[in-house]
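Submission checklist for the structure archive. All mandatory fields must be present; incomplete records are returned to the submitter.

[x] Identifier: peptide-methionine (S)-S-oxide reductase
[x] Organism: Skeletonema marinoi
[x] Residue count: 99
[x] Sequence attached
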Amino acid sequence: MDATEAFLIEFDPSVITYEEILDQWADMHAPFYPSSCQYRSAIFYSNEKQCNTAKSKIEELGKGGQRKVYVDVEPVSAFYRAEEYHQDFLDKQMSSSAI
């Protein structure tokens, strides 16, 4: 079975917008190289407005077609919680390196 590693963000749009979340994602991510299913870049949306926002963000990253961007835009589907050792990964890494 193919799976993509992802994280689920539940948010209150009166506090932060979907577009602001995508802005943060884009600031930390460079999806300019193709990758396997497990590590592919993807943006998931729950409605048409979010889909359009995601596509606009990809267009912006690609500088209007000047640069190839490898990001799949898909509707939200089943989400499965990863094994416990994947949870809070960064916190666990920081704790183990402090020992």
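[x] Structure attached
Curator remark: The chain has one domain: 18-92. Helices lie at 18-28, 48-61, 89-97.
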